[in-house]
Amino acid sequence: MTLALPHESWFRELAAMDERSAEWRSTRAGLLALRYVETRLAQPTEEGAPACEEDSELRRAIEAIDSTHLPHRQFRALLLDLLEAGATSPATRLPRLLVAYAEALARAGRWALAADAYETLLAYPPADKGAAGLTIRAQLRLSACLRQLARFDDALRAIAAARESAEVHQLPDLRIRADIAAANVALQRGNLPLAQQYLEAIIETARNSPHTELIAGIMHDLGAVAARRRKWKTAVRYLFRALSLYTEEASCARALTDLGVALQEGFHAYAAARDAHTLVLARAVDRDAQFVAIINLIELDALEGREMDFERRRRSVDERTLPALLLPHYHLCVAEGLHTFGHRTRARAAAERALALAEEHGINEVIIRAEELLAALAEPPREAAAPEPTPEPASLPPSVEQVVLALRTMRVKANL
Fold this sequence. Notes:
Elements: H1 8-15, H2 22-41, H3 53-63, H4 70-88, H5 94-107, H6 111-123, H7 132-148, H8 152-168, H9 172-188, H10 192-205, H11 212-228, H12 232-245, H13 249-267, H14 270-283, H15 287-303, H16 307-315, H17 327-340, H18 344-361, H19 364-378, H20 398-413
Helix pairs in contact: 1-2, 2-3, 2-4, 3-4, 4-5, 5-6, 5-7, 6-7, 7-8, 7-9, 8-9, 9-10, 9-11, 10-11, 11-12, 11-13, 12-13, 13-14, 13-15, 14-15, 14-20, 15-16, 15-17, 17-18, 17-19, 18-19
């Protein structure tokens, strides 16, 4: 039996990087900062400990971070704030600054590092009574990171801890958010009945909530379940309603992504779907949202018969940068596109890769589609003309047409 190395995810990433790179310097400073935070949060007194050589080493590491690129500049500022807070008011400022740093890591798509930062905070929860909400939010954000890493059971444990704390501290909105997080895990694993069960209970509980963002999130999830059940008009209605209610850019990007997929799959409204994914690619602040947009645009290129665009966009993706949860979807999308364009050998290799990754992470939807594609590729090839792109429908339901027009207006206003 071997014990896990503290902050193992950081050491793994550092080992895979060039020590001369800006990424390595930023990651090393983050690791040193987490060790510094642990030391300060373990102290029972309000004032920080006297400065020591380790503090000076951390400051040198932070100041070595490249400040010419926005993500690194943000990390540098956050880590300097952590260093200052640890020396002056660790019990009050340090936990909130650590959450801010973890959020920045998540926005950059560094899910394993963000999860470790949240776990560091949760190992030393703030003692003051007013900090319960911060701790619960950290548990829920930890669960979101774990979902991105396909660590679903760990995500559910974090959600259960958040739910219990919310009940103890009588924080009903956070209790609702915990239920929403559990529904998202069920949805991501393909357990639609369980997701629907959660959401039906949530909508009753949250009906009188004054928080618009919370209601928007429930609408979004209801739209996602409707889409999985192929109730496309209902899905488009819920998703567009969520988009209209959201105020946070990251939430808007997720709603736009799901809306684009619903328009594509439910109505073959490819131009509108391309509008949605192009808006996400241009506006999203999260790297994973941008990756999802690229994958969806690759799929649209195949559906619309744009082979040159398909190959150009496919080659632009470095799969080493993709989150674990997106890799199976990416390889499946590429496999289906290659099959569409008649490249059977390459399609088979991509489908086998997608299937292996989907089985590793338990993504049932990808497993089913990859197996179906491999079965089709096992059949003798048929001689046929070049594939014709699927045409867009001549007309759409009025409610859907309104959404299509709204997306086009958004893209025009954004000059995209």
